[in-house]
Amino acid sequence: MSTAGTAPPPHPTPAANALATITTVAARLAVRSGHRRRPAGPVDRSLPVEVRALRRPCPDVAVLDLVPAGSAPLPRWRPGAHVDVELPSGLLRQYSLCGDPADRSAYRIAVRAVPGGAGSAEVHALTAGTRLRLHGPRNAFPLATAPSYLFLAGGIGITPIAPMVRAAHAAGIPWRLVHTGRDLASMPLSDELAALAPGRVHRRPDDTAGVPTAADLLSGMDDGAAVHCCGPPPMIEAVRRAVPAGQRFHAERFSPPPIREGRPFTVRIVGGPDVAVPADRSALDAVRAVRPDVPYSCRQGFCGTCHVRLVAGTTQVDTATPDPAGPGRTALCVGRAAGDEVEVDLGR
Amino acid sequence: MTATDDDRIALQARDVRFDFSGLRTDWIPGEPLASHVIDVLHMLLPEGERWFVEVFSQALPLVRDAALAEDVRGFIGQEAVHAESHQGAQDHLIDAGIDVSGYVEQIEWIFSDLLGERGLTGAEAREWLVERVGLIAAVEHFTAVLGEWILHSPDLDAAGADAEMLDMLRWHGAEEVEHRSVAHDLYMHLDGRYLRRIRAMLIGGPALAKLWTDGTAVLCARDPRLRGTPQRRVRLRDYLRAARRGLVPGPGMFAKAVLTYLNPRFHPARYGDTDAAIAYLAVSPAARRAGGTA
Ligand code: FES
Ligand SMILES: [Fe+2]
Ligand SMILES: [Fe+2]
Prior knowledge:
Chain A: Residues 265-348 form the 2Fe-2S ferredoxin-type domain. The complex is a heterodimer. Chain A is α/β, with parallel strands linked by helices. Chain A folds into 3 domains: 46-138, Elongation Factor Tu (Ef-tu), domain 3 (Beta Barrel); 149-252, 3-Layer(aba) Sandwich (Rossmann fold); 265-345, Beta-grasp domain (Ubiquitin-like (UB roll), Roll), CATH 3.10.20. Chain A is 22% helix and 30% strand. Chain A has helices at 14-34, 118-124, 158-171, 190-196, 206-209, 214-218, 233-242, 283-290; strands at 47-58, 61-68, 81-86, 92-96, 107-112, 131-139, 148-154, 175-181, 201-205, 225-230, 249-251, 265-269, 274-277, 307-312, 315-318, 321-322, 329-331, 336-337, 341-345. In chain A, the strands form 4 sheets. A 6-stranded antiparallel beta sheet of chain A has the order 4-3-6-1-2-5, covered by helices on one side. In chain A, strands 9-8-7-10-11 form a 5-stranded parallel beta sheet, with helices on both faces. In chain A, strands 13-12-19-14-17 form a 5-stranded mixed beta sheet, covered by helices on one side. In chain A, a hairpin with a 2-residue loop joins strand 1 and strand 2. The longest helix of chain A has 21 residues, at 14-34. Chain B starts with 31 loop residues before the first helix and ends with a helix. The relative contact order of chain B is 0.18. The chains are: A alpha/beta, B mainly alpha. Bound molecules: FE2/S2 (inorganic) cluster and fe (ii) ion (2 copies). Residues 49, 79, 82, 143, 172, 176 of chain B line the site of one fe (ii) ion (FE2).
């Protein structure tokens, strides 16, 4: 049988020849199978919901109950999950689910108004009856079984932690919660959790207790406790470093940070077109607007799937950070032109 | 409290680094055969997982489900980092004087020629792409089973296996368990026919077994430290003995994996321990150094 389209094996052996034949047969069968393959139909998993109730446990925190617009129950989720909320303006924001996973008739989110934050301002202005579209839920902060738990929440970071606390409590697993924040009035949800087991909840406002160190937060925990931490990034980083090796440390995984202090530049694609990259976008995003099939994954420079050949020009992440793709290549997701333009070859 | 299919884990690659410069060729001390059985992964996976990345990147435009596309994207990044990590281990084997270049060349030929684009175009290229997605789904069932095994392998710790290598294998195993449904879901989305899925297993299973056996033989024969010793020749009974002692996955595990796959209602989410994967990623030194761990 001919093995068209392939080169001979570098080291001919009976097994290599057999494999060449088998894959040739497989390629033919694939083409035959294709005649009756039904191409994938579109799957729409977005969830139309309606704002049912909005309350304010703290002056700057809005808690929203979102109910399905249709009759189908909402998809199941587990503690730590989040949804992407499509706001009426088109903005997309990610919020942790903080209600009861067993309640499939509503999702609950809690949103703090951040000064200058367009998304949170829009959420705070929502009224009952407004229609929204959700995507997800997804879990970037899963809760796995452990002998015991130490939950650490900073401010609004309590949202994914609250259902974790309830789940641990319901499962009869020992747990402790430390909730920190500016002052008691700015620390939502943990008062309700304290009602479950007052002795297990430590609400620790900075205005009376001072800003805690990682060691303060971890003090008194048992060796087997799985630490689950959600809060401002510096708090997570400090706790990550302080949790002893061999002890479980869980935190939510972040999407890449927004681009700051970027300069606009032009990416010339071999074979055209030229693409303008604005100051606040990555070359990847700009290139994908014209070449949507360009592969990528991590968006942080390290996975290598978006690395392409650099034909002309030089790139860097910023003046202090070289392009992670190395010489002669560029990571489209983080690399930026050192000058005004670069030329890349997207061919494989 | 077990994460199952009703919990859709957000898949993201982790920026891990490993340093194998101090690694012994018998990184399970005194167990060169068991070490090399596992070392075969360092010869197969760099090319193999890069091929996964290539095939899945090409398949992405066919996906018409945004959530699945997101899974596939996460999968691609994880596999790309796996390939680089095993490449580091492979480079170390070569530095240690084990000449595996012939075997690796053959592997490159398999993935880039036999399983490459084969000069096909248009509809034929697309169907060959779907066929390869099916093959990857079958192979991913094995990687998930292996991941499950390495996450539950206390005998390796007891035998004093190298900590850096164990962390690499367990981080990889945990991500395999974490993303174990993606290739199957992609195949089901693009085609889903049972016979085609089984056909892929009938090709992938035996090919993998043969490559693994040959790879172990090459490593033992070329390991300069085994020159002049009887361990240079791999004997079935030595492998079975290592498997019984929990140092390598046993033949029963592979047989069971194939049988499971034959079930028409097979879905990877029903097999495997996501909790164990999550728990390991929370202690893995490499994942902790990488930050952003979940
Ligand atoms: S997307 Fe991972 S390196 Fe760019
Ligand atoms: Fe992998
Ligand atoms: Fe995998």
